[in-house]
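Lab notebook, design round three. We kept the backbone fixed and only want residue identities now. Task for the bench partner: fill in a sequence for the structure below.
Input structure tokens:
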């Protein structure tokens, strides 16, 4: 996924970030610092966790300064476990441009590392099982690429990136189509074999209908542990199984023990707790 950071989509996100943060330049530094003033910055972890966003921070700085005009020395890599007090990156660059890029770099790093850290916690809760932790489309607008990248750095697996990637028939689709079986029949003839169909279910009867319809993935939405056990037994390998709804870290081990293939967790990206990182900048004499 790293190659996507060189995409037009990511370039637009970086441009938007700088246009939002300094539409007419940084007026706090314009009359204090000159182009020749150089500085050294260190990014320091203020907590234990999983780091994510170093590639993004580098490219943000490169967009601001230019590829040839700074040093960006990494002391760890995206996906690494770090500890409070660890130095993550050392940078040497023009002082004014460092200050201009500081908040944008930290915003990406803190959000992405927060996602990666919580994802890692969830993955550890189900260690030793076949179950994979999935993200959702509950991402910050414009940040889906980086949010989902952070999930991967934390050891999670990406679900569909957009509505165009796979079919997911939820309650509203099913109601409009007149049921699970008609809904699947309506879309199946129009799809290439590479596009999967997932069906959301909330009862065992709906699970039976999803099996009969030939769903590739059956989502068990907001079911109790007992109902999920019965659903997995009904499906019996005829489709992959995803559990969803109210998936707290404390509940994950019990859900994975049921035998589902996936657990999707919206909180990975919709309730992000930023990872604490500080940036110390000193002039180079």
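Proposed sequence:
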């Amino acid at each position: 996924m790293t190659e996507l950071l060189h995409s037009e989509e990511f370039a637009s996100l970086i441009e938007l970030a700088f246009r939002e943060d300094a539409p007419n330049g940084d007026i706090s530094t314009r009359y204090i610092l000159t182009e020749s003033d150089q500085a050294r910055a260190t990014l320091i972890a203020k907590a234990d966790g999983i780091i994510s966003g170093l590639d993004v921070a580098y490219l943000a700085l490169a967009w601001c300064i230019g590829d040839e005009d700074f040093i960006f020395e990494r002391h760890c890599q995206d996906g690494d476990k770090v500890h409070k007090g660890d130095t993550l990156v050392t940078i040497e660059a023009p002082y004014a441009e460092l200050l201009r890029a500081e908040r944008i770099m930290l915003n990406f790093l803190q959000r992405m590392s927060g996602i990666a850290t919580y994802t890692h916690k969830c993955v550890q809760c189900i260690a030793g099982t076949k179950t994979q932790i999935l993200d959702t489309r509950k991402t910050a607008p414009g940040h889906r690429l980086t949010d989902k990248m952070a999930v991967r750095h934390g050891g999670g697996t990406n679900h569909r990136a957009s509505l165009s990637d796979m079919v997911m028939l939820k309650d509203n689709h099913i109601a409009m189509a007149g049921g699970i079986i008609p809904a699947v029949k309506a879309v199946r003839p129009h799809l290439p074999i590479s596009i999967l169909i997932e069906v959301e279910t909330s009862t065992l009867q709906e699970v039976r209908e999803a099996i009969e319809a030939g769903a590739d993935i059956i989502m068990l939405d907001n079911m109790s542990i007992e109902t999920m056990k019965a659903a997995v037994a009904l499906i019996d390998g005829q489709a992959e199984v995803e559990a969803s709804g109210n998936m707290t870290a404390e509940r994950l081990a019990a859900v994975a023990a049921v035998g589902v293939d996936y657990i999707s967790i919206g909180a990975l990206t919709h309730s992000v707790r930023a990872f604490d990182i500080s940036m110390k900048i000193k002039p180079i004499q």
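Keep this in mind before ordering anything: The first helix runs from residue 8 to 21.
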